[in-house]
Amino acid sequence: MASTGMKQGTNGWEPRIVAFFCNWCTYTAADLAGVSRLRHAPNARVIRVMCSGRLDPQFVLDAFARGADGVLVGGCHPGDCHYMEGNYKALRRVRLLQRMMKDMGIHEDRFRLEWISASEGEKVKTTINTMTERVRALGPLGLPERFAEWDEEMDGLAHAIAAQEEAVHA
Amino acid sequence: MPEKPKVAFYWCASCGGCEESVVDLAEEILGVVNAVDIVFWPVAMDFKKQDVEAISDGGILVSLINGAVRTSEQEEMAKLLRRKSALVVAYGSCAHMGGIPGLANQFDREQILRYVYEESPSTINELHTRPQTASPEGGHTLTLPEFRSMVRTLDQVIPVDYYLPGCPPVPRMLKAALDTLLSGNLPPKGTVLGPDTAMCEECPRKESKPADLAYTAFRRPHEVIIQPETCLLAQGVICMGPATRGGCGAQCVTGNMPCSGCFGPTSRVMDQGAKILSAIASSLSAKETEGIDRTLATIPDPVGTFYRYGLPGSLLRRKIADHN
Ligand code: SF4
Ligand code: SF4
Ligand code: FES
Question: Which among A97, A101, B110, B111 has the fewest CB atoms less than 10 Å away?
C-alpha cells in the first residue's frame, strides 16, 4: 500500500524506541553504566517492568500504534530470571509476536529481545545504538500518521454529501 | 395511539447471517414488530434511501447496522443513518470489529482487484476491465461505489453508541438489547451489549482447563479427533475462549469445535489477537529459540487465527508496507 508522505516527514526525524527493561537486570545495567538519567537516553524511552515475563504483547503493539519506530525488550539471561520462567515466557511471546508482525508487514528490525544482565552496561549501550541505527535505516514507522492518511479517503465523500445537501436546500 | 419508535436495519459488507439472526427471533419477532415501526430494512422490506432521507434528523430511535465498511456507498448509508438516528448499534462481528471481510486487510486494494478481475481461475477478462466509479453509457454516466483501500469497522466511519457482538449475534441477545433500548434505561455509550466475562466462564469444559500447559505442537481441528468433554486447549487445539467475551452460550465448543473468537474481547482487553497470542505462546514447553519456533510452526496462520473477526479493529488495523 502506498505510504506517500512518510518519506517527506523524515527531515529532522529521530528514531523513537520504546525499551521495556527488566528491573533486575537490563534496567539496573543501564542505570549503572551511565546510560544513567535513563529517561534522557537519546532515542530510547525506557519503561521499567518487574520481569520481561510481565511484558504483555498488547504493550508492544500499543507502542507501535502510538508512534514508536522500534521496540526493544531487555531481560535476564536464561536461568537468571527472578521469577524462574518469566524470561522464557517472554522469548516465546516475542517469537510469535515477531512472526505475526512480519505477516502484518512490519520490518523485523523494529522489534528485538536481548538478554542483558545487571553487569553488562556496555551491552545496553551497544544494543540501543545498533537498534537505533537499524531503525534509522528503515525510516519512520509512523503508524499514527498512517492511520490519519488512510482515513483521508473518506473525506471526499463528506464533502460530496455536504455539497449535495447545499444544492437541495439552496 | 402514540407513535411507535422507529427502527432501521441496514447491511454493509456482510454475508446475510446477521439478517438471518433477526429472523431467528421467530415468534418473538411479532412482539418486536408490534412494539416498533420498522422504517428501513433492505433485505426484507421495500423502503428506499429517499424514505430514510425524508425522516427528520434523529427521528429513528435506533439503527442496527451490520457488516464491515468497504465501499463509499456503505459509508454514505452509514452516515445517513447516523444522522437520522438517535442511537446506532454496530450489529455483529463485522460492524463491531471488521469480521471475516476484515481479513482482506492483509492485502492491498490492487492485489485484491487484480486477483478478482484478472487472475482468479474462473475469470476471463482479456480487456482487463475493472469497475469504474463513473463510466459513460449512451449519453449517461453510470456510477458505482468506490472500493476503498481497506475494510473498516463501523466505528471507524461513524460514531457508534452500542455494539452487539457475534457472528452472528444470538437472537436472545438481540431481544434483550431491543428491550433495553426501548426501555429508555440506557447503558453508558460504547457498551458492548453482552456479559463482560470470558467465554471460558460459560464453557461446559471449563473444569478441565489446565492451569499449566507445555505445548510441543498445536493441532488444527481436522488433524485430531476432538474429545467432547475436555478443554480444547488441553487437547492442543487453539481455542479463543480465554480472550473472547461470553454470551453465546459456548455454541462452538458445545458443537465440539474450538471458539474462534467471534464475540470479540472483554472490555479489559485492548487487542484480542495479542491477548490470546500471549496466553498460547507462554504455554509452550521449549525454552530456546529453535524449539519454540518448531512448535510455533504448527500454527500456520497466526493473523487469521488470532484476528479472525477483528483485524480492522485491532491495534494495527491492516498490513502495511514498511520498507525503503
Ligand atoms: S479454552 Fe475453550 S474449551 Fe477450554 S474452557 Fe475455555 S472455551 Fe472451553
Ligand atoms: S464459541 Fe466463540 S466463535 Fe463460537 S459463537 Fe461463541 S464466541 Fe463465537
Ligand atoms: S526477572 Fe528479569 S527477566 Fe524475569
Answer: B110
